[in-house]
Every structure is written in structure tokens, then in C-alpha cells.
Write a structure and sequence with these properties.
Length: 429
């Protein structure tokens, strides 16, 4: 972890830049993957899966029997944990449903808005280095709550061509009966353009590594929507001297272990806290099975000493972290000062892992500073909001003049006429 003491404000902009590869560096390779999938369909998926995942598949799909078998392959303890998480995520997302209300903006002018599920959605579940079945809960629960009629699920296969039983179990829980064994940019291409056996979807959801994230971003001109750029995981911890250095280190490592391209940051006003966090990182790192990933991520990470809580919050807002942890006294007093963050964890007993798995909030969140403008996945991500209006003849008499005047001022006579022609008829009745 790079240690920086009281950096000059002029240097902050450089410090908030993530260590990930540039979009431009990855674009050409991904464009080539897109071309292959568009030209050769399923054949390209099999070829690219062999190349990037080291598996020669005979079929791109799990069978219904494989999905059903997961029930017997998981321990009772894990199934219970998945069900508990499912229930909390369901509760949190169900209360996001918008209650439609009709508004009469002027007498006789009625406007309302209705949520309509997106027809066909594609879910990407990361699986390159860890089978993130928790992500399937985070995407599948709101997709089902929203009522999306068709859900396609892609995830990379393990080296033996199988899909982890917890992903199969969670799919079955959600009523998803088919899993496509494909990952990376090729999975995004398959869901965006369609192949002989995979239908093209309207919107693609899900986090992933840099290849997955850039592939999603490259779809902007295709007419296929994406949820958000949710790339390599990150966390920023703001710690004063009331924080517990062991807890802070554990939270930093929890995101560092996702992958070498993750970044974790600790901001503190206490030099002693920074040294103790560094010591804890070393001790805890040694015991982690994924210590190689975590150690590489720590090489790209930052420990920064700043002058005050206010300064730490300013830095954090500029950084716009995916996850923000406030391990400070009186955190309640600064909540309104947080302007850019994906998800916020308050106090010493709210580990970020709670949001990753089970508290109820969604863990598919904007990374790489995109929290400046994007929100994480929610129920809204799976619906379109269609507005309706009904204007009565009296309503048109009330609002007509306003429309005519505005249309004339824009020089759009046909717009004005669409009102005038009706007003004449109404006045003649
Ligand atoms: N922001 C979020 O909300 C969020 C949530 C969960 C996970 N994540 C992130 O998701 C990522 C998961 O990454 P992962 O790699 O384990 O799984 P992944 O499923 O995202 O990616 C694996 C795929 O990457 C492709 N790939 C690997 N190396 C490649 C190369 N050199 N060239 C082209 N393609 C290549 C392969 O096709 C492979 O199937 C992590 O970075 C994690 O931090 C983010
Ligand atoms: N921390 C990840 C989001 O950045 C989500 C996750 C899934 N499993 C564990 N963690
Ligand atoms: Zn995580």
C-alpha cells in the first residue's frame, strides 16, 4: 500500500485515478471478440471459452437435471444462508416498487407514469476466479420482482466445464432453468447480438472484470442497454482514532481479494492508525487463501493521512468509491456531506461484506469513479417508466394557449396547429 502524508490538493486528481487498464487498451481485442461472435455465433463461443477459460465444452448449456441436482450438492447450512440472503434482498428491493399515482396538473390534464418490465434481460454472473452466486441473487431477485418475462444467465464454466452448484441452486430458486456456460466479453457479445441458441436481450446486467465491463460499455451504439459500469471492486475507509485497525484491515482485504486490479483506500487523520492498519494488513494477509490477488491489489492501493474529517469526505467525494465505510465518531452528523458513493457502511460494526451478501442492499455498484453519476442496480433497473396522459376538451382549453405560444416561439407551426385544429372544434361544439 502506497502511504501518502497530507497530499497537496492539486495532487488529489491524480490520486483518485484507478490502476485499471485504459478503455482504449482493451477495446481492440474486445471488438475482435464481438466480430467473431457476430460472424460465427455458438462456434465462436466454444472457441473463445477454450481460449480464455481453458475448457473444451461439448454443450454451452447446463441441463435441467444439473440444475435440479444442485439441491443435493449443497450443505444445509449454505442453503439456509442463501435463503436468508434471498429473503432480505427480496424485502429491500420489493419496497422500491413505485406506487402509480395520477396527477391532474391542470383541470382536465391528467398525467401518470407506469413501470413496465423489460422483456428480455441478460444477467452476467462473474466466475473467472470465484463463483459469485451472491451476484445471481442481486440480479435475479429484482429481475423477477420486476416481472421480466425472459431472463438469460451467462457465467464462465469451471476448468472441468461444470457450473458451481451454488450458482445452479440459486438459479433454481429464482426459477431460471437454463445457464449459458460462457464468460468474459464473449458472453456480453452473445447476449447483445444473439447466436443460434442464445436470444439477443434488451438489457445486460452484471459486474465483471475489465474485459466484461469494457465490453458492456462498448454496446452504447448497438441499442442494447446496460445497467452500469460495475468493474473491479473497491472500498474506501474513512477512519479516525476511534476505528479498530483490525476491522479496517479486514474490510480493505475483503475487497482486495477480489482481484489484482481491485483498489482499496484508507483515509485517516491519525498517523498511528495508519501504521496499525498496515501491520494488521500484513498479519491478516498471510492467512488468506487468495493472498496473491490481495497482495497485488494492495500494491495498487493507498493509505492517506489527511488533516480533518471534512478533508477526508472531500477526498472521498472526488474518488467516488464503490463502497464507502465511515469508521468515525458521530458518523450520523456527516451523512449529508456524502455526495458520491455506490453504497455506504456506517460505524465499526457494518462490514462491507454484509452488503456483498445478505443485508438486503444490492452489491452491483458503480466502480472507477462512476458513482459520480451512476447508481447501483435496483428494481428500477429492470423496468421502463412509461408516461401516460389524457386531456379532456376542457383540459385542452385550459392548456392549449400555452402550447400554441411556445410552439410559435420555437417556429414549429405544425406543433401549434395540432392544438389549434382541436381548439376550433371544441369551441364550435
Ligand atoms: N462492481 C461490482 O458491483 C462487482 C460485483 C462483483 C464482482 N465484481 C468484480 O468482478 C470481477 C470478477 O472477475 P473475474 O475475472 O473473477 O470473473 P469474470 O467472470 O468477470 O471474468 C472471467 C472472464 O474473463 C475473460 N478473460 C480473462 N482473461 C482474459 C484475457 N486475458 N483476455 C480476454 N478475456 C479474458 C474470460 O473469458 C473469463 O471467462 C472482479 O474484478 C470483481 O472485483 C464487481
Ligand atoms: N464486493 C463485490 C462488489 O464489488 C460483490 C461480492 C460478491 N461476492 C463477494 N463480494
Ligand atoms: Zn466483495
Amino acid at each position: 500500500m502506497r502511504k501518502i502524508e497530507f497530499p497537496d490538493r492539486a495532487d488529489w486528481q491524480g490520486l483518485v485515478k484507478r490502476p485499471t487498464q485504459n478503455y482504449e487498451d482493451l477495446e481492440a481485442g474486445i471488438a475482435q471478440t464481438f466480430r467473431l461472435v457476430q460472424e460465427q455465433g455458438d462456434g465462436a463461443l466454444l472457441e473463445l471459452t477454450q481460449k480464455y477459460d481453458g475448457v473444451k465444452l461439448t454443450s454451452l448449456f447446463t441441463t435441467q437435471e444439473e440444475i435440479a441436482a444442485a439441491e443435493t450438492e449443497l450443505s444445509a447450512e449454505l442453503k439456509e444462508a442463501i435463503l436468508q440472503a434471498y429473503s432480505n434482498i427480496q424485502l429491500f428491493h420489493a419496497q422500491q416498487a413505485e406506487q402509480p399515482k395520477q396527477l391532474e396538473t391542470m383541470p382536465g390534464v391528467m398525467c401518470w407514469r407506469k413501470s413496465v418490465p423489460i422483456d428480455r434481460v441478460g444477467l452476467y454472473i462473474p466466475g473467472g476466479t470465484a463463483p459469485l452466486f451472491s451476484t445471481l441473487l442481486m440480479l435475479g431477485v429484482p429481475a423477477k420482482l420486476a416481472g421480466c418475462p425472459e431472463v438469460i444467465l451467462c457465467t464462465p464454466p469451471a476448468k472441468d466445464g461444470s457450473i458451481h452448484p451454488a450458482i445452479r441452486y440459486t438459479a433454481s430458486l429464482l426459477g431460471i432453468d437454463k445457464i449459458v456456460k460462457v464468460g468474459g466479453a464473449q458472453a456480453i457479445a452473445a447476449m447483445a447480438f444473439g447466436t443460434e441458441s442464445i436470444p439477443a436481450v434488451n438489457k445486460i446486467f452484471g459486474p465483471g472484470n475489465q474485459y466484461v465491463t469494457v465490453a458492456k460499455q462498448m454496446l452504447s451504439k448497438t441499442g442494447v442497454a446496460i445497467d452500469l459500469p460495475a468493474g473491479p471492486s473497491e472500498v474506501l475507509v474513512i477512519a479516525d482514532d476511534s476505528a479498530n485497525p483490525a476491522f479496517v484491515a479486514a474490510d480493505l482485504l475483503s475487497q482486495a481479494e477480489h482481484g489484482a486490479d481491485s483498489q482499496v483506500v484508507v483515509l485517516t487523520t491519525s498517523a498511528e492508525m495508519l501504521s496499525r492498519v498496515e501491520q494488521e494488513l500484513q498479519t491478516q494477509l498471510d492467512n488468506l487463501p487468495r493472498k496473491e490477488f490481495a497482495a497485488k491489489a494492495l500494491d495498487n492501493s493507498l493509505g492517506i493521512l489527511l488533516g480533518s474529517v471534512d478533508e477526508m469526505l472531500r477526498f472521498s467525494n472526488l474518488y467516488a468509491p464503490e463502497h464507502l465505510i465511515l469508521s468515525i465518531r458521530n458518523f450520523e452528523q456527516v451523512l449529508d456531506d456524502i455526495t458520491n458513493a455506490g453504497s455506504v457502511f456506517l460505524g465499526n460494526y457494518s462490514p462491507e461484506s454484509a452488503g456483498d451478501y445478505a443485508s438486503g442492499t444490492n452489491h452491483t455498484l458503480p466502480t472507477n469513479g462512476y458513482a459520480r453519476a451512476y447508481s447501483g442496480v435496483s428494481l428500477d433497473s429492470f423496468v421502463k417508466k412509461i408516461t401516460f396522459q389524457h386531456i379532456t376538451p376542457v383540459g385542452l382549453q385550459n392548456i392549449g394557449k400555452t402550447i400554441e405560444v411556445m410552439a410559435a416561439a420555437e417556429g414549429l407551426e405544425a406543433h401549434k396547429n395540432a392544438v389549434s385544429i382541436r381548439l376550433k372544434e371544441v369551441q364550435n361544439v
